[in-house]
Amino acid sequence: MSDTNEIEDSLTDAPLALPLDAWRRARGARMVTFAGYVMPIQYDGIMAEHLWTRESAGLFDVSHMGQLILSGEGVDAALEALVPGDIAGLAEGKQRYALLLSEDGGILDDLMITRAPMGLFVVVNGAVKWDDIAHLREHLPDEITISHLEDRALLALQGPKAVDALNRALMLEEALIFEIGTADTTGVDLAPAPKVASRLGGLERHTSLGLPGLSEPETVRHYTRLSRQNYAIDLGLFPLGSCTMKHNPRLNEKVARMKGFADVHPLQPQETVQGALAVIQELAVWLIELTGMYGVAMAPKAGAHGELCGILCIKAALEARGEDRPVILVPESAHGTNPATAAFAGFRVENIPATAEGRVDLAALKARLGPDVAGVMITNPNTCGLFERDMKAISDAVHAAGGYVYCDGANFNAIVGRVRPGDLGIDAMHINLHKTFSTPHGGGGPGSGPVVLSEALAPFGPIPFVSLMKDGCYKLVEEESAGELHPQTFGRMAAFHGQMGMFTRALSYILSHGADGLRQVAEDAVLNANYILRSLEEVLDAPFASSGPCMHEALFSDNGLADGFSTLDIAKGLIDEGFHPMTVYFPLVVHGAMLVEPTETESKATLDQFIGALRSVARRARQGDTALKSAPHFAPRHRLDETLAARKPVLVWKEAELAQAAE
Ligand SMILES: Cc1ncc(COP(=O)(O)O)c(C=O)c1O
Question: What is the pTM of this model?
Answer without folding.
Answer: 0.75
